[in-house]
């Protein structure tokens, strides 16, 4: 399944932003690792609702997909570069 089909063009900037925010949160000593995906989820849904100009089920779903894609991308890069295991 190609998740990017569910992300409209105007939300691609949100996806990139979530990835960068995740990197900053990971490098912050005060943010616990388990909380990063939850923070990104809230930001992703909020950003999607803002960019789509309204609270709809589709906006919430697309915010979740953007967040999932950003986290998955991060994990793919991380796990691919860590080939020791």
Automatic annotation (TrEMBL):
<feature type="transmembrane region" description="Helical">
    <location>
        <begin position="57"/>
        <end position="77"/>
    </location>
</feature>
<feature type="transmembrane region" description="Helical">
    <location>
        <begin position="6"/>
        <end position="25"/>
    </location>
</feature>
<feature type="transmembrane region" description="Helical">
    <location>
        <begin position="32"/>
        <end position="51"/>
    </location>
</feature>
<keyword id="KW-0472">Membrane</keyword>
<protein>
    <submittedName>
        <fullName>Holin</fullName>
    </submittedName>
</protein>
<dbReference type="InterPro" id="IPR032111">
    <property type="entry name" value="Clostridium_phage_holin"/>
</dbReference>
<keyword id="KW-1133">Transmembrane helix</keyword>
<dbReference type="Pfam" id="PF16079">
    <property type="entry name" value="Phage_holin_5_2"/>
</dbReference>
<keyword id="KW-0812">Transmembrane</keyword>
């Amino acid at each position: 399944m190609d998740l990017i089909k569910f992300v409209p063009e105007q939300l691609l900037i949100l996806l990139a932003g979530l990835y960068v925010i995740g990197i900053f949160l990971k490098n912050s000593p005060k943010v616990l690792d388990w909380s990063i995906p939850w923070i990104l989820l809230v930001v992703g849904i909020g950003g999607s609702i803002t960019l789509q100009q309204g609270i709809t089920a589709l906006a919430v779903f697309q915010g979740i997909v953007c967040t999932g894609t950003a986290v998955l991308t991060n994990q793919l890069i991380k796990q691919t570069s860590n080939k020791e295991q």
